[in-house]
Amino acid sequence: MVSSPLLIGLEIQQPSGTVRANIQVVCRNENTNQSQILESNDSGEVIFNLGDTEFFSKGWNVGDRVSVNSLYLGFEQSFSLTIPALGTTISVKDKSGTTVGSFVGGQGITFPKGIFILIEKAVLPALRYYTPQEWLDYFNMVDTNTDSENGIDLLQLTRIGESVEQEIDSETNTKFDSNDGSFYSPSAIEGGESPEYHDAKYIHQNVYFTDFVPINTLTTFEINQVAEGGAPSWESITEADNEISVDKHTGRIKIINSGKYAETGARHVRITYVFGRSSVPKDIRMLAIVETGRRIMGSTFIKKKIRKFDETTFPDLNEFNTFRRRIIQKYKNVRISPT
Q1: Domain limits at 229?
Q2: Which of 122, 119, 38, 124 is nearest to 77 (CA)?
Q3: Which has the closest alpha carbon to 222: 264, 256, 261, 269?
Q4: Hey, is 131 helix, strand or coil?
Q5: For the residues of 190-238, what is the DSSP string, one character each?
Q6: Tell me: the pLDDT tens digits for 76-113?
Q7: Which H helix or E strand runs over 59?
Q8: Distance between CA atoms of 59 and 56, rounded to whole angstroms?
Q9: Is this structure's pTM higher than 0.85?
Q10: pLDDT tens readout for residues 187-211
Q11: Considering only Cβ atoms within 10 Å of each terminal Cβ, which end of the chain, N or C, has fewer?
């Protein structure tokens, strides 16, 4: 290991070009797992010395991976580099692709100083099934702010997590959410519409099932008694008037007033309601976490970052597929149509 000076000098700027004082910046030698935190001075400057034995007592070597990152309120920035051989110059770019400066082997980023421009921090999508930290804990991993080389990008994680949630919603015909009383209309699921239309397939059809369950509130149940092809005339019939009965758990709505059947035809019944579950069961949470991991592992652009997966942390895929089918079937609302 070498303990001779190797400097990384930076000027911290806002996107407008204004220098920023009192911004914390972290420099880490990923190979030795040693780091230093500095705060920018009144001129917006920080200077790290990878040969400073107080913070980097293990020194540095050519080929070591070094990361620099900063988080400030709604802003962030980071970059990483591999220490080059003596006299070799490399160009260093930040995570947004902007050039920070040139790093010279044996010297570092010295004069001129590197320009470290903070960018607005991306807002993470809100996941309903699990938190990003729960995912990281399950797989015993960290994010890129902790380990820029092997960490998981949280924005990428949550975007994949969103798609997993949407797929589970679609397959089970429901939504799981600790929603504090806020439920969903059918249009919240891909392919759904509100109001939701149903066909009256035969004379005196008296049973209909909503596409999504469980029903939280049934707002309207309307029938059209005009012959197919004519301008529809909608009449609302209600449970309060003993015209229908409603099973909110299964989504079954039965017309019990024999004078209130819809005329046979396509889209002759329409229903307005909100639905959803007010909690996320443990098995659904687990399914979403593992499914997200499976998709990340299968993404070629991040395979190198997921190399910590092994047989002890990631289930056999055949076993997982069996587990997945079982959980989906457990919660799936089978849409029943009259025959």
Answers
A1: 186-275
A2: 119
A3: 269
A4: coil
A5: TT--SSEEEEE-STT--EEE-SSSSEEEEEEEEEE-SPTTSPP-EEE--
A6: 899 999 999 999 999 999 988 999 999 999 999 987 88
A7: none
A8: 5
A9: no
A10: 989 889 999 999 999 999 999 999 9
A11: C
